[in-house]
Amino acid sequence: MKKVFYLKTCGTCKKIMAEFNLEGWEHREIKANPVNEAELAEMYKRTNSYEALFSKKSTQIKAREIDVKSLKEEDFKALILDHYSFLKRPVFIVDKDIFAGSDKTNLEALRSFMEK
Fold first, then answer.
1. CA-CA distance, 13 to 9, in Å (whole number)?
2. What is the mean pLDDT of residues 58-66?
3. What 3-state DSSP class applies to 32?
4. Disulfide: which of 3, 10, 61, 95 matches 26 by Cβ 3.0-4.6 Å?
5. Whether the model pTM is above 0.85
6. Does pLDDT of 116 surpass 90?
7. Using the 8-state DSSP alphabet, how is residue 9 labeled?
8. Biggest alpha carbon distance in the chain?
9. Could you please report the per-residue DSSP string of 46-104?
10. Which DSSP symbol is given to 3?
């Protein structure tokens, strides 16, 4: 399975995705087609953490006055399922591997993986 979850209005997603040949990949725009519970469960299997999949940069955090430090795993899961902006992006899934988000360490790991 090769799948990428992204937001089409996100410049960072576009920039990262442009670095790779994603021909033959399933592209999933999360605003038009949000991640469902089964897909999130698959992501969780690869990370063992909903928090690792949660975007702490979401504008919804401030809008909803969420105290991220007080959230538990089930809270992260519920929020991700509730609003697309809570999912870190982009999320690349390749077989049993997952690369979520745009932080430097994650991108370096993704680049190394894609060069194989």
1. 8
2. 96
3. coil
4. 3
5. yes
6. no
7. T
8. 43
9. HHS-SGGGB-TT-HHHHHTT--GGG--HHHHHHHHHH-GGGB-S-EEEETTEEEES--H
10. E
Question: Which residues does residue 100 pair with via DSSP β-bridges, in sequence order?
Answer: 91
Cβ-contact 53, 43 below 8 angstroms: yes
d(CA 65, CA 30): 23
- Rounded Cα–Cα distance for residues 42 and 57 (Å): 23
Give the H/E segment covering residue 27: strand 26-29
Residue recorded with tokens 């932080």? 103
AA identity, residue 4: V
The owner of tokens 């809270």 is 75
Sheet holding 26-29, edge to edge: 26-29, 2-6, 91-94, 97-100
